[in-house]
Design goal:
The complex is a heterodimer of chains A (348) and B (446).
Chain A lengths: L5 E3 L12 H23 L1 H24 L10 H12 L6 H15 L13 H12 L35 H7 L9 H8 L5 H6 L11 H13 L6 H20 L7 H6 L3 H8 L10 H21 L6 H18 L13
Chain B lengths: L1 H7 L21 E3 L5 E5 L9 E2 L6 E2 L4 E4 L8 E2 L4 E11 L2 E11 L20 H11 L11 H5 L9 E6 L8 H8 L1 H15 L3 E7 L3 H9 L7 E6 L8 H9 L14 E5 H13 L5 E7 L7 E6 L4 H8 L5 E6 L21 E6 H4 L14 H5 L6 H9 L3 H8 L9 H5 L6 H16 L1
Helix pairs in contact in B: 2-5, 4-6, 5-8, 12-13, 12-15, 13-15
The chains are: A mainly alpha (348), B alpha/beta (446).
The complex binds iron/sulfur cluster (2 copies).
Chain lengths: 348, 446
């Protein structure tokens, strides 16, 4: 028997599944990377610059708030990276970089640090950032760029390099220069809502349409989401039920008036719904922990998204729907406590 | 697992976890270890009142002889596990932690250590009450780890009707295989013990529940049963904590013990296979419980296996014989999910010790033990076999809202199985929080 043995004293259980926060978060980053890569291929160096600037700002802000609150660095948990990537992907690809940095800072500050950091935040920080710039820069956030324009790897979209505190220039002229087809500067959602034009479903699935940086390829989003779901790092019920909620709601209106309202498949594939459902609504921190709560939460987000899209002033409603869902989560959790083993409830 | 139940039409308990089982010692036959020079026999190896010593310092005792008597009904006697001389009655470390009073016996080196004290009896003549009394006299307690006096468990209160004896052969804790070996090596004693317990409780039916990773035991026991036998062998899903009473009752009979209730409330009494095999062996001979089988395992052990050791054997003695290594090591009595870690190698094996595990640093946890805030991943919620909300309980514990935990979130239903801590990616010591919360609530109530 060796003399040098140090006896460790811990409390049971003395075994652990071995998967910690870092492993989960890192895998979320893996799942997001193909979507990021596709975005860059689609929109070129402008999208790349936006991803880098937004993510770096998130990391720096996170570190700053760590320092201010006297905590050690939390960059290692990857959550700030995820916030950055997600936020960048909800912005238009030509979004001025300085505005992207503002969104990132606000998202981390108001959406996360203010609550005390990871796990304490009630709402998704990326969406808080996005909501802020939506209100602050209404024009820039709705200025779209055509996908696959010529020279996207050698030149920036003119709006990208807008100097800080200035509004971006108009890009209509530039757009007509770089594209052969007439581009109205509108996303499938806007086309449908304001002009009644329904974009080809296949284009939306593959992601060859205009839209926010990372919202356009439903297929890649699905692949990343399924990867996480298979590794049990994402609760598949949330995205599935968000989409079901949206599709059913849309289906009802489509049946009432198929001319005025879009078909359910279009609703599911367009805008930020896919990305939101798979990567933001499913964010563990802001979603309920009870099985029934998850169902209520996800359906609610799906339904509200469609209601805002169809009847609100905005083309896209998924962001506000998720924020509402996040806000309702504590209440949902509370009223959906599971029946405890052996518990006798009235009527059971 | 929902799918499992769906596919096989089996009504098991839901939730639970599938940790790596490490049942490497399952093929290691039970072997005896040499006697240690000194035995340490705490007077409170069981739940209930400590036993009252019958011996004094310097007195000679023979193997099998009673050395402490039960203090009333909620207590059991203690028998000398070896022939030797009483070295004293002192405060010693025990698996329960702090020092408690224990009888020390210096074992005679030259002795053949045969059992020299017994009172054989004809079991067929005993009434149920007499069987219960014989069980108490044997000093038997739940050998699965609970160490609850067996005679109390088998004495069914007058206001309760019990129809089924469930025999717990799940052994759902990783590493442990001693119950598995007992089923394989002593099926006759086990079936005898089951019959005694059925007579004592007046039950007409017995179900031996065994996890389906031990099909050899299932088949073997089935082979020992004749057609029309009131004893049934049932394979249940291999899943932790299948061996907890409430979960096994759910799996075997699809009955749910009400919150705060006992198995008797749903007409069931549960006993562990090791306990019943022990009774089957001891009762006819009229002997007391003086030794038990433990699994010695873990990456730090050179010769892992199942060993028959006299009660009171210090774990240092066992380690010397099986050989172990490791610079930073955790010594656990029982299984890794619920067993306590010990701080002193003088700690003895007691009636409730089912295993001795030596986990080295790499196997304790590859990862660092950094604790993150709860990320609300809900893994604990879908792991908790009691369907509690450990996430919420953990957050309330952090805010020291202990009363709210008990009143609104069923803290008292937590049986500290460890599933929630096991899965938590934030490494939150949830079970430890819950233990503290319960202790504080108990204190406040007192
Ligand atoms: S330790 Fe308690 S709360 Fe945790 S899983 Fe087990 S019963 Fe549930
Ligand atoms: S497993 Fe841990 S991190 Fe996940 S919800 Fe439960 S307590 Fe929180």
């Amino acid at each position: 028997m060796s003399k040098k043995t140090t006896i460790e004293l811990r409390t049971s259980p003395h075994a652990h599944a071995g998967e910690d926060v870092v492993v989960i978060m890192r895998n979320v980053v893996y799942a997001l990377l193909p979507i990021c890569a596709f975005t860059v291929w689609q929109f070129g160096i402008s999208a790349l610059a936006l991803l880098v600037v937004v993510t770096l700002t998130c990391l720096l802000s996170e570190r700053l708030f760590n320092a201010l609150s006297g905590k050690s660095s939390s960059l290692g948990d990857w959550s700030a990276t995820i916030t950055g990537l997600l936020l960048a992907m909800t912005l238009p690809p030509g979004f001025p970089l300085w505005m992207g940095a503002v969104a990132a800072f606000v998202g981390v500050a108001l959406g996360k640090a203010m609550f005390g950091g990871l796990g304490m935040n009630a709402m998704n920080p990326a969406l808080i950032g996005r909501a802020f710039v939506q209100a602050a820069f209404p024009v820039a956030i709705t200025t779209w760029t055509p996908a696959f324009f010529d020279g996207r790897f050698s030149q920036f979209i003119p709006t990208t390099l807008t100097p800080p505190f200035l509004q971006p220039p108009g890009i209509t002229d530039w757009v007509s220069e770089v594209t052969v087809d007439a581009f109205s500067g509108a996303t499938p959602l806007a086309l449908q809502k304001f002009e009644g034009v329904v974009t080809d479903h296949m284009d939306m699935l593959l992601g060859t349409t205009a839209g926010s940086a990372g919202e356009t390829s439903a297929l890649l989003i699905l692949a990343g989401g399924l990867y996480l779901a298979a590794r049990r790092m994402l609760d598949w019920r949330i995205p599935v039920l968000v989409l079901v909620g949206a599709a059913v709601t849309a289906g009802i209106f489509y049946m009432i008036d198929p001319v005025k309202y879009p078909d359910p498949l279009f609703v599911v594939l367009s805008g930020g719904l896919m990305l939101g459902a798979w990567f933001m609504a499913s964010d563990m921190v802001g979603s309920p922990v009870t099985p029934l709560g998850v169902v209520i939460y996800a359906l609610m987000i799906g339904v509200i998204t469609v209601i805002i899209r169809l009847f609100g002033g905005l083309t896209e409603g998924v962001m506000y729907a998720i924020l509402l869902g996040n806000a309702a989560t504590p209440l949902i959790d509370q009223i959906t406590q599971p029946r405890v083993f052996g518990e006798q409830r009235a009527g059971k | 697992m929902g799918l499992f139940n769906l596919l096989f039409g089996q009504k098991g308990f839901t939730h639970g976890i599938h940790p790596p089982y490490h049942k490497d010692t399952a093929d290691k036959p039970i072997r005896r270890l040499p006697f240690p020079p000194q035995l340490v026999l705490p007077l409170d190896q069981h739940i209930g009142k400590p036993a009252i010593p019958l011996v004094v310092k310097g007195q000679e005792v023979v193997r099998g002889e009673p050395i402490a008597k039960a203090d009333g009904n909620f207590s059991v006697p203690l028998h000398a596990p070896a022939t030797g001389r009483v070295a004293g009655i002192e405060l010693m470390p025990t698996p329960k932690g702090p020092k408690t009073s224990a009888i020390l016996i210096d074992v005679y080196e030259g002795s053949t250590q045969e059992v020299l004290w017994e009172q054989p009896r004809d079991m067929s003549e005993l009434s149920p009450q007499e069987i219960i009394q014989a069980i108490q006299d044997s000093g038997m307690v739940g050998l699965g780890g609970a160490a609850f006096p067996s005679h109390m468990k088998l004495a069914i209160p007058d206001d309760k009707q019990v129809d089924t004896l469930i025999v717990n052969g799940c052994e759902c804790e990783p590493y442990l295989t001693c119950d598995h070996r007992i089923m394989l090596e002593h099926p006759k004693a086990l079936l005898r013990g089951i019959r005694y317990a059925m007579r004592a409780t007046g039950t007409e039916k017995a179900i031996i529940g065994i996890e389906d990773n031990k099909m050899d035991a299932v088949e073997l026991l089935k082979g020992h049963l004749s057609k029309g036998s009131p004893v049934e062998v049932k394979a249940v899903e291999t899943k932790y904590p299948q061996g907890s009473e409430k979960m096994l009752i759910k799996s075997a009979l699809d009955r749910e013990v009400p919150t705060g209730g006992l198995p008797a409330d749903v007409g069931v009494v549960v006993n562990n296979v090791g306990t019943l095999a022990g009774l089957g062996d001891l009762l006819p001979k009229g002997r007391g419980l003086i030794e038990r089988v433990i699994t010695v395992a873990g990456p730090g052990i050179a010769k892992p296996g199942n060993y028959l050791v006299p009660l009171g054997t210090p774990i240092r003695h066992i380690l010397d014989h099986v050989g172990y290594e490791g610079a930073r090591t955790e010594f656990i009595l029982g299984g890794p999910m619920m067993g306590p870690a010990v701080s002193a190698l003088d700690t003895p094996i007691t009636k409730g010790t089912s295993g001795l595990l030596v986990l080295n640093e790499p196997s304790i946890e590859e990862e660092s033990h950094k604790i993150w805030p709860c990320i609300r991943c809900a893994r604990c919620v879908s792991a908790c076999p009691m369907h509690l909300n450990p996430s919420m309980l953990g957050q309330l514990a952090a805010k020291r809202k202990y009363e709210e935990m008990a009143e609104d979130y069923h803290l008292t239903d937590c049986f500290e199985c460890g599933c929630c801590s096991y899965v938590c990616p934030s490494n939150i010591p949830l079970v430890q929080y819950f233990r503290i919360a319960k202790a504080i609530n108990r204190e406040q109530a007192a």
